[in-house]
Amino acid sequence: MGIKLLAPSVNESFGSFSVEGNDLRFGLAAIKNVGALFADRIINERTRRKFTNIEDFLTRCASFGSSKTFESLATAGALDCFGIPRSHLLAGLSTALETVSRDRSRNSEGQLSLFGGSIESETAFEFPKSSLPELSRSELLSGEKEMTGLYFSGHPLDGYGDILKRIGALDSAAIRKGLESGSLKKTDKIKFAALVTKKRSKVTKKNDIMAFVTAEDEQGEAEIIVFPSLYTECGSLIAENKVLIFEGNPELKESFGDEGVDSISIILKSVSTPEDAARNAPERKPEPEETKARSLYIKVTDSNAERLDDALALASQTGGSSRILVYFEKEKRLCAAKGKSADISEKLIKQLGLIMGGENIAVK
Fold first, then answer.
1. Residue boundaries of the structural domains of the chain
2. CA dist 34 to 25, 67, 69, 150, 241, Å?
């Protein structure tokens, strides 16, 4: 069984990544707008007893942060343990927090015991009801990615597997390996299925519009370059948070410095939705052959040493052939991780960076 990266949870997560059985649990402090102090206060409160429902959680923790912080927890999925749809949480959190704050102020004097101490207030309100439908799958995934940098409920490309096989699309890992091995050339035309995460338009010297598009799949991302002639035809089709099939000529752009990862760039020739691409699918082109393995370097410092085993387990479960080399900063010692290897991808590098620190991961 492979190691799973579990979604954050106010009832299970710690500040940073933690081991849970055979899996890893995402940390609360890594959620956007949360931070270490807020996470620590939730964890300290939870040590007394776990939160039984959303009302119990807010009654005990409302004073720890702002409405924005609690909304970030909901968007990331960290409040899913209470069994309430995220759309309902987001619609009712602001009102619920105001209610808790008002009740606390109203009852503050009455909470004094005969001995001058404070008595913990019991849950005395009901979270606002809502008839809103749950967020769409794409909205749930988009929120998770925005708050944590990762997807937990799935991936936007899930469900397109059959279509991608029919049209012979390559994922970013296959494109990278093909370019590095030479089995793919700049003049080859490939299909790349990906989610558009960023679109930046630019006006050329001739007053034409072109675009630079960042698109990602489960293995990594690529920059799609859309020149003016094509932008006029299909610019409106390319939009953020949309899954598209890009067809064009691939190449690797060298990274800055010795420790970076070369990025994939695709000169766009055509673009379509997965459904349109499937209707006009040509015969499938075989995937490029495997390239020579690179090496993955992990630097161990005083601050991340305790997470090394987790990082090695996550890397080795990818099943690739690239060596994993570990550098111990304190001892100034470099050694190979015996019996372990990895399939290096941008996705793996990002996950390892979250565990060990991005500056401590390199590929050479």
1. 5-148, 161-279, 295-363
2. 16, 11, 6, 16, 24
pLDDT band at 289 (very low <50, low <70, confident <90, very high): very low
User: Which DSSP state fits 26?
Assistant: -
Q: Does residue 153 contact residue 239 with C-beta atoms inside 8 Å?
A: no
Q: What digits encode the pLDDT tens for the residues 104-125? A: 777 665 554 444 444 444 556 8
Judged against a pLDDT cut of 80, whether residue 203 lies above it is answered with yes
Look up residue 51 and give its two tokens: 């939160």
Average pLDDT, the chain: 87
What CATH fold (topology level) applies to the domain 161-279?
A: OB fold (Dihydrolipoamide Acetyltransferase, E2P) (2.40.50)
What does the alpha-carbon distance between residue 277 and residue 130 come to, in Å, rounded to a whole number?
A: 40
pLDDT at 285 over 80: no
Residue with tokens 């749930």: 140
- Amino acid of residue 40: D
Query: The tokens 């001892």 sit on which residue?
Result: 331
Euclidean distance between CA atoms 325 and 260, whole angstroms = 16
Strands 361-363 and 295-300: antiparallel
Global confidence as pTM: 0.67
Single-letter code of the amino acid located at 273:
T
Q: What is the CA radius of gyration of the chain?
A: 24
